[in-house]
């Protein structure tokens, strides 16, 4: 430096540099000290098997005397489930893991174990712990996360048209871990609510109900339940058709106001909308019994040949378990076909230009 002056660093810069160096040193020492190599976290499913790996590395002159696997459940006390000693052999002291846990390699350096027939309650921390000389105990811990795929279902609830909001569809994602998420897509204006129930084994059941004020127009409309959960490869969906019951609505079609004496194959059709389907469809005449020329077949009333007796009011009545409704139509029988133009000349009728 010019003038023989020595460089001066700000005190804050020196402090930060020392702190950084100390952090690097501690981190390096921690890596070196970690001699038991395990996986930090492993995921598994009920009824399946899981392998918990453990290996002693960078041992140098360290003497291994015994290795133990210690299970610490989510809610409970630590307990040995597997022990290996080079002289005394293997031991599995915990009855909860009887015949379900085994060492894959018969040596101290690699005491990897496999647990079979897994249960949701097997979740927890599994510590591979070595007794060594002269350094004392060395260990590494694996967190076993138990997952469960949801049992999904969705169903409609048959309801009656009314003025109050009711549940028309239900969707359930049962016994999953973690909890599922349920959403709906709908062609009707409604809303849904969701509730959860925790099981004793850590699983969660999610229930969702779709509600609306049901009308006859909502019958057979579509709603779709969608379930998302991390164990599913793709979103689960199920589309449902709503079932709304209502009494019949009725109308009569087929009368063209040109029924005339002698016309054949005239017909009336009873048009109805009902859920459930009708239990009875009845044709009546306001003037008494149906004319002899009338033939009734379910929702159709046919006239073989129109005569004056057909000049009446026809009534169609439709019934189902929710009630009955009817509709009527007044039929007027003309003397002649309206398609022809007739001119009255005294007491005779003739076509223009003569017959």
From TrEMBL:
<dbReference type="InterPro" id="IPR013106">
    <property type="entry name" value="Ig_V-set"/>
</dbReference>
<protein>
    <recommendedName>
        <fullName>Nectin cell adhesion molecule 3</fullName>
    </recommendedName>
</protein>
<feature type="domain" description="Ig-like">
    <location>
        <begin position="10"/>
        <end position="145"/>
    </location>
</feature>
<keyword id="KW-1015">Disulfide bond</keyword>
<keyword id="KW-0393">Immunoglobulin domain</keyword>
<keyword id="KW-1133">Transmembrane helix</keyword>
<dbReference type="Pfam" id="PF08205">
    <property type="entry name" value="C2-set_2"/>
</dbReference>
<keyword id="KW-0965">Cell junction</keyword>
<dbReference type="InterPro" id="IPR007110">
    <property type="entry name" value="Ig-like_dom"/>
</dbReference>
<comment type="similarity">
    <text>Belongs to the nectin family.</text>
</comment>
<keyword id="KW-0732">Signal</keyword>
<dbReference type="InterPro" id="IPR013783">
    <property type="entry name" value="Ig-like_fold"/>
</dbReference>
<keyword id="KW-0812">Transmembrane</keyword>
<keyword id="KW-0325">Glycoprotein</keyword>
<keyword id="KW-1003">Cell membrane</keyword>
<feature type="domain" description="Ig-like">
    <location>
        <begin position="248"/>
        <end position="332"/>
    </location>
</feature>
<dbReference type="GO" id="GO:0007155">
    <property type="term" value="P:cell adhesion"/>
</dbReference>
<keyword id="KW-0130">Cell adhesion</keyword>
<feature type="domain" description="Ig-like">
    <location>
        <begin position="150"/>
        <end position="243"/>
    </location>
</feature>
<dbReference type="InterPro" id="IPR052659">
    <property type="entry name" value="Nectin/PVR"/>
</dbReference>
<keyword id="KW-0472">Membrane</keyword>
<dbReference type="GO" id="GO:0005912">
    <property type="term" value="C:adherens junction"/>
</dbReference>
<dbReference type="InterPro" id="IPR003599">
    <property type="entry name" value="Ig_sub"/>
</dbReference>
<dbReference type="InterPro" id="IPR036179">
    <property type="entry name" value="Ig-like_dom_sf"/>
</dbReference>
<dbReference type="GO" id="GO:0005886">
    <property type="term" value="C:plasma membrane"/>
</dbReference>
<dbReference type="Pfam" id="PF07686">
    <property type="entry name" value="V-set"/>
</dbReference>
<keyword id="KW-0677">Repeat</keyword>
<feature type="signal peptide">
    <location>
        <begin position="1"/>
        <end position="33"/>
    </location>
</feature>
<dbReference type="InterPro" id="IPR013162">
    <property type="entry name" value="CD80_C2-set"/>
</dbReference>
